[in-house]
Amino acid sequence: MRKILLFFLTQILVVPLFAQQDQISFSEALTTHLPKYKKQADKAYRTENLKRADFLFDSLVKYGLKGSKMDNFKVQDLKKKPVALDEFQKPVYLTTYASWIVPTEGEIPALNKLSEKYGDQVDFVMLFWDSHSTTKELAKKYNKNITVLYVDEMKNDSPYVIKMMKHSLGFPTSFLLNKDKNIIDIRRKVSHPFGIEFEKSFDLNYDSFTSAISLLLINDSSQYSQAEKTLTP
Q: For the domain 77-231, what is the CATH superfamily, name and number?
């Protein structure tokens, strides 16, 4: 854990603070960089060059999407009440998902455990592309500290940025957002063969989630320190 924290602290210190005058929205950044990425990524997947595909995704995130501001979209909670992204006041760990995606053995237990530990510091949000009834059933697997939301595309009333999140980056995809909804990073879930021991699957997922949460917390701490220095006479 110490090594993870030191690594991400270094990352935060060398990355400049977001320049508000230069900042664009996530949807604008995606519109700008997506065409080139899709052309190259489609070729990589057609030729089964998965290493190249992963490199292209990481490059898109690092050079095109990080630092942009996530659009303030609205979706629905399990009571069918509209919920806006900006209602979340803490750093946000937002993961897009769907019922036809099978989670790995230790994925949900690892996320549940970490939401118990860090729920007072991070807003954990699962956004499903599913019907209300299906999402309500899936939500039973998640800890109470995880907010489960859904998008029912059959109604065709979801915000444009929501459609872009699904059809451009696919899912599951995790968005690490600071309090201002600036994108710190975008990640895909950890991958491993199905059928491995539960403990190994749990550990792999736990480590992956922990590194992401550490990045959010270190960024939040760094921003607080910068603001404190600015306000201190």
A: Glutaredoxin (3.40.30.10)
Sheet of 173-177: strand order equals 82-84, 74-77, 146-151, 123-129, 92-97, 173-177, 183-188
Domain spans, the chain: 21-68, 77-231
* Identity of the residue numbered 90: K
Instruction: Give 197-232 pLDDT, tens digit per residue.
Output: 999 999 999 999 999 999 999 988 765 444 344 334
pLDDT one-digit tens code per residue, 93-148: 999 999 999 999 999 999 999 999 999 999 999 999 999 999 999 999 999 999 99
Distances (CA, A) of 164 to 47, 71, 133, 205: 25, 11, 24, 26
pTM of the model: 0.84
